Amino acid sequence: MGKITDRVEDLAQPIVESQGLELVDVEYVKEGENRVLRVFIENPEGEVTLDHCENVSKNLDEKLDEVDPIQESYILEVSSPGIERPLKKKEDFDRFSGKLAYIKTFAPVSGNKEITGIIKGRDGDNIKVLKKDDDKELEIPFSQIAKAHLMVDFDNITG
């Protein structure tokens, strides 16, 4: 299924960028009897609006109909990535430095395959994270990250 998401990313990228938005991620999953194509977008200037989602959805739907990279029927969903935004690119770890994240690695890093901690940026291809449970700083090779996303830091919510 990775090839479908790669092809959709290639089609979606110029559509999303033409509206001043950023493409965060593309997922193609089976949910029950349905296949769902999810496209996550972000507005670097602020919030993603319903108009943003509708415009990207309409333009991408037209492009997908034209190119037809997916043979079976599917549901197209376009939305913001939400509060647990995926961290997919090295630059995401620079942008979200100081934020709480969950990181799962392919192989253990200092004995851990699952790490929750504060992103401290990166050093070249290594992501620096201050582990939440013991305040130990780890350097994780970007190539070893299987999955990563932001988390809500309930300990630092004020109100």
So what's the CATH class of the largest domain?
Alpha Beta
Helix percent reads 25-40%
Structural class: alpha+beta
Q: Which sequence of strands runs across the widest sheet?
A: 7-6-5-4-8
Low-confidence stretches: none
Which geometry do the CA atoms define?
A: globular
Count of individual domains: 2
Distance between the termini: 43 Å
Q: Rg from C-alpha positions? A: 17 Å
Q: In percent, how much strand structure appears in the residues?
A: 35-45%
Q: What is the strand tally?
A: 8
**Helix and strand sequence:** HEEHEHEEEEE
CATH superfamily descriptor of the largest domain: RimP-like superfamily, N-terminal
CATH topology of the largest domain: GMP Synthetase, Chain A, domain 3
| Mean of all residue-level pLDDT scores | 93
Largest pleated sheet = 5 strands, antiparallel
Oligomer: single chain
Specify the CATH architecture of the largest domain: 2-Layer Sandwich
InterPro entries: Ribosome_maturation_RimP (IPR003728), RimP_C (IPR028998), RimP_C_sf (IPR036847), RimP_N (IPR028989), RimP_N_sf (IPR035956)
Function: Required for maturation of 30S ribosomal subunits.
GO biological process, one term: translation
Protein name: Ribosome maturation factor RimP
